[in-house]
Fold this protein.
Amino acid sequence: MTFEREQLIRFSHCDPAGIVFFPQYFVLFNGHVEDWFDEGLGLGYAKVVIGQRVGLPTVALSCEFMKPSRMGERVRLGLAVREIGRSSIKLDLTCRLGDEMRVRVRQVIVTTSLDDGLSRPIAPNVRDAIERFGFVRDADGPAARAAATTMERT
C-alpha cells in the first residue's frame, strides 16, 4: 500500500530561482510521515510522540533528485513501508508530478524512548497499524503505483 497526498509547492519551499530548495523536501517528507501516522495508520503522530513518549528520529537517509519542482506546482508525495525491524521502520518516499519522478528517498526511522533517548522495540499498537497498512518491496514499481491508484479512488 502507498499513502499519497497532493502537496502545493509554495514560495516558502523555494529558492530565488523558484525551484524547491533541496532541504525543503525533507521538511515536506517529514510532514508526510506525520500525516501517514495520523491518516494512514490512524494513530495520531502527536499521541504516539507525546502520549506514548516515543521518539521517531531518522537514522539513515538517501535521496535522488531527478528533476526540480517549481513554485505553484501540485506534486504528489508518496510513502510506502519497505520493512520493519525490532525498532526500525524503512520507508520509501517519493515526489512526483504526474508520472514524472522528481525525488526519491529511502529513510530509516527508529523508535526511541523520549525519557532516555535509547532505541526501543516498536510499540505493539504502532507495529499492528503498520502491518495492517502493508508493505511494498518496490515503492516505484507497477504494483506500488496500482495500489496508490486504488487508494486514491477509495
The longest strand covers residues 74-84.
